[in-house]
C-alpha cells in the first residue's frame, strides 16, 4: 500500500454492520424446521450471540475487493452454521457446561439432542452452499469441514498428553480453529473473482488471524475473568488440554512446577488450579503465548499489504491489531 489507509473506526466491524443484519435475516430464515426441537436448539445457540468473526471476515474481504453481490450474505450464514455445529459437538465432547455466559446446549437439552442438531446445521449449511452454483465454493467449504473434523479428532488424541509441544499444539489449532477463518477469507476472494495470488493472500490472512485468535483464547483461560469470558476458568485444564501457556510454563518452570502441571493435564484435574495459574503467570508463559499470537497477527497484516486501499481493508488490519487486546 503506497497511499495512507482511511481513518479506522473504533469498531473494525462498523463498515459491515448493515451486511451483518442481512446475514442475521438469512440465518433466521434458514433455521426453520418442521421439528420444533431442531429450531429451538438452533435458535438457542445462535441467539447466544458471539463475535461472528468468520462471517464478518468473509464480508470484510468482499468489501475490500469490491464485491457487492447478495451471495455474500448466504455464504456468511453458511460459515456461521458450520461454526455453530462445531460448537454443539465440541461442548458435548468436552462436557462443557458454560459458553458465552450461559448454559451450553448440551447442559440445557442433553447430549443426544445437541449432537443431532449439530448434524442438522452441517447439512443445512451444505444445502445452502449448493445454491451458489460453484464447485470451487463447494470444494473450499467441504475441504474446510473435513480438516476441522480431523482437527477435532487430533485434539481428542492429544487429550491428557503433557508431552505435546508447540508444533503439535499449532497443528491442532490450525486445523480445528484457523481453518474456518481461512476458508471464510478465501471465499470472499473467490466471490470477488480475485486472481490466485490475492486469493492466497486472503486465505493466509484468515489462517493467521484464526491462529492468533485461538492462542489468545488459550491465554485468557489463565489470564481472564470468568464473568467477562463467559466460560469457566481452567476449563482447558479440566479437559486435559495442553495449550501454549501450559507448554511454555512447563518449559520455563522448575521441575516441581512442571511436574504439577504435567500431572494436572494427565489427570484432567483442577485441584491445584490456583497454583497452576500462578505458575503460568510467574514463569512468563503468558508473555510467550502473547508473543506467538503477535507474530501471527503480524503475519495476517503482512499478507494483505497489497489489497486495495479502502475502509474495509483498514478494518481487516485493525481487526488483527485489536485481537491482541482481547479480554474475552
From TrEMBL:
Its cofactor is Mg(2+). Transmembrane segments: none annotated. It holds the Pfam family polyprenyl_synt. Keywords: Magnesium, Metal-binding, Transferase. InterPro entries: Isoprenoid_synthase_dom_sf, Polyprenyl_synt, Polyprenyl_synt_CS. Coiled coil: none annotated. Belongs to the FPP/GGPP synthase family. This is Polyprenyl synthetase family protein. It comes from Acidovorax lacteus.
